[in-house]
Amino acid sequence: MKSNIHTMSSSSQCPICVESYDDPNNICSTICGHVFHNSCLSEWLEHSDTCPMCNKRNPAPHRIFIDLRVDQNNSNEKPAKLVIKGIPPRLLKAPFFKPVLELMSVMQVHISESDIKTITRIANTLHVTFRQVEHMEAVLKNKHKLKKNPTTSAIVIHEVVDPEVKALFQYSHKLKRIGYKIFFIRDNKVFVKKEQTDSEIEISSKETVNRIYDGNRWNTPSAPSLYAISSSTSNQIPVEYNNEVHRYINDSD
């Protein structure tokens, strides 16, 4: 256990005592989302009624359950995290595995407790980290099944999105002007397409958006040129290439 803890980042330390979380039964979180040793926070709250990190009053600490084991084979992979909102408060009681696994059953996703790395409650939401990206993808693929069940229809599940990806997703909506209708995020990557049957295009940067926009807008129908007029037969005649038109305009001066 100790060798695994040494591989964890410095952020995996209690801000009060600045020591690692070596006991999964001695970890708690405040309602404002900060994590501490349960023993450290209990002692702190004997002398103060504010969160040690943000000074929020009455932080309402609650136990959280974290698997402190580090998977060395997947240590470089981006965590597979989901946020679950809308679970009735009466069900948000530790251990949080129970409501999560019940949702997995409704979605017909075969995930066990050992497939879940961490579950953290922040206010009335659960933040779930899976050991493998495939587990998260299975949940996202089947989450629509929750809407078919009256007891779970109000529950919302979405992937945790990096702020940079969220900003890029919002910027990509510029492509609506040239006919793109479908915008979505998968594996913290932005994708767009015009129709459901079209191939998806990955948006890796704002430059990608601008390149698509500039390359397509010239292909869209535009208004007639200012350098064109209509004759009596409704044919458009470029002024600069028709001497008779020039003479007509000059004679009218």
Automatic annotation (TrEMBL):
**Record's PROSITE patterns?**
ZF_RING_2
Which Pfam family is an annotated match for this chain, by its short name? zf-RING_2
InterPro entries for the chain: RNF4, Znf_RING, Znf_RING/FYVE/PHD
Do you know which Gene3D superfamilies this protein is assigned to?
Zinc/RING finger domain, C3HC4 (zinc finger) (3.30.40.10)
Q: Which UniProt keywords apply?
A: Metal-binding, Zinc, Zinc-finger
Indicate the segments forming the RING-type domain, all copies.
14-55
Q: This protein's superkingdom?
A: Eukaryota
Which SMART domains does UniProt cross-reference here? RING
Q: Which SUPFAM superfamilies match?
A: RING/U-box (SSF57850)
Identify a single GO molecular function assigned to this protein.
zinc ion binding
Q: Which PANTHER family match?
A: E3 UBIQUITIN-PROTEIN LIGASE RNF4 (PTHR23041:SF78), RING FINGER DOMAIN-CONTAINING (PTHR23041)
The protein here is known as RING-type domain-containing protein
Task: Please name the source species.
Answer: Musca domestica (House fly)
